[in-house]
TrEMBL record:
Organism in which the protein naturally occurs: Marinomonas alcarazii
Record-stated family: Belongs to the sigma-70 factor family. ECF subfamily.
Keyword Transcription: yes
A Pfam family assignment: Sigma70_r4_2
Protein name: RNA polymerase sigma-70 factor (ECF subfamily)
BP GO annotations: DNA-templated transcription initiation
GO molecular function, one term: sigma factor activity
Domain RNA polymerase sigma factor 70 region 4 type: 131-183
Length: 189
């Protein structure tokens, strides 16, 4: 993750130390962690929800979860911001799922989105995986890489992707399916 998005005074190591202190229920460390990271995590949540009030509520729940799960953070597995961003993204996706109308759920490919029951450590097992994913995304045709990012980072539904990319819904479904298969193949190399 881009360190410039975080408070200038915090490094990956200092955030990891804060999380270690949070795991020991240090409220001052939790406050400092919040101050250093809330803008980044709010950006993730609000980019998906596109609603400030809902994003603020979800962000509170995200930090509650960070407080509760801080002891499971492992700096050997993921960077602090990656671990927290995963919690934020998964909680936000749960919110989208919860508030979707029953007839529109088919537009979102939830099977390909990380499940909140997975520990953040399991999702991003090593920072090398993130670098490999970026390389694999670069291997996709640019419109398809943009579509994958819009779907899985911004939380756009298939219908929203069809509108954005000015393609029929069937084409979007095919592109998503093929692009995910290509990414999976690339990640196994």
């Amino acid at each position: 993750m881009n360190q410039s998005l975080l408070s200038e005074q915090h490094t990956t190591e200092s955030l990891a130390n804060l999380l270690l202190r949070v795991a020991q229920e240090d409220r001052l460390a939790f406050s400092e962690l919040y101050d250093a990271t809330h803008r980044k995590l709010f950006g993730i949540v609000s980019r998906i929800l596109k609603n400030q009030a809902a994003s603020e509520e979800v962000l509170q729940e995200v930090y509650l979860k960070i407080w509760e799960k801080a002891e499971s953070f492992d700096a050997r597995v993921a960077s602090p911001i990656t671990w927290m961003a995963t919690i934020a993204r998964n909680r936000t996706i749960d919110e989208v799922r919860k508030n979707k109308l029953p007839d529109s759920e088919a537009d979102v490919d939830f099977d390909l989105i990380a499940d909140d029951s997975m520990a953040p450590d399991d999702i991003f097992t090593k920072s090398q995986d993130l670098l490999k994913l970026e390389t694999c995304l670069d291997g996709l045709e640019p419109p398809r890489a943009q579509m994958i990012k819009a779907a899985y980072l911004d939380g756009l539904s298939r219908q929203e992707l069809a509108e954005r990319f000015k393609q029929p819904l069937g084409t979007i479904k095919t592109w998503l399916h093929r692009s995910i298969k290509q990414l999976q193949g690339c990640m196994k190399l």
